[in-house]
Amino acid sequence: MTPEEEKILEANKNFYSALQSLNIEEMESVWLPEEWVKCLHPGWDMLEGWEAVHESWQQIFENTKFMRITMGVQSVHVEKTIAWVCCTEKISSATEGRFETAYVQSTNIFKLHNGTWFLVHHHASHLPAPLNNDAAEVVQ
Amino acid sequence: MTPEEEKILEANKNFYSALQSLNIEEMESVWLPEEWVKCLHPGWDMLEGWEAVHESWQQIFENTKFMRITMGVQSVHVEKTIAWVCCTEKISSATEGRFETAYVQSTNIFKLHNGTWFLVHHHASHLPAPLNNDAAEVVQ
Known about the structure:
2 copies of one chain form a homodimer.
Chain A: H1 3-21, H2 24-30, E1 38-40, E2 47-48, H3 50-62, E3 64-79, E4 82-95, E5 98-113, E6 116-126, E7 137-138
Parallel strand pairs in A: 1-6
Antiparallel strand pairs in A: 1-2, 3-4, 3-7, 4-5, 5-6
Helix pairs in contact in A: 1-2
């Protein structure tokens, strides 16, 4: 793995740490706040623009009491200033009176901006089957 | 819309024409046949590498009698030699003894190679609700 690929996987890890933290400032720090960024939460319609994406994270964080993420397989592909990470996650979460576990596959696109990799596109969808536990890594 | 964006949307349209045609040669012509390309069909696990992706299309085409696609909203974002298209599709298909209609959201990543935009990543997932018919366009 190249140093650049390591940086991108670190940016990807920071995104899932922010998600697990339920902290909106952490989530703000990983995204490029542009009007063209997009985000698809599992089961939602695709959101466009930082304002709508930001609002969705606020809404999710306000309605979630607890979230625990275990990462599965991750792969990264870089093309100069754009990179995308494909990864699987097991997400256990608790909302008002409900506990659920979801298996998710994501495509996360990052853009290099002033020397830092920022998330610009998140497409997450439900997976049919549980992850392979051999590759599991708990998000810190 | 810039001429480059038009070219990318044309490449995206060619992908859905190939899908609807159930013709493997047409599908081969829109992809960059690299070992790092990826493809997620709705409800499947993510496939990696042209060999696996190609095999999946063969399998889908062999098991499908008929497919009809109506495109919904499409948007494109270009960053030099990489671009991604987000689009929704209504896919009506017939397999052995079964007819079904699916609403799908896709993220398609294209790479400019020798002056032509090729598909290198397809992530498709089921949408919760029908498309907005105002933006519908039948694939020719």
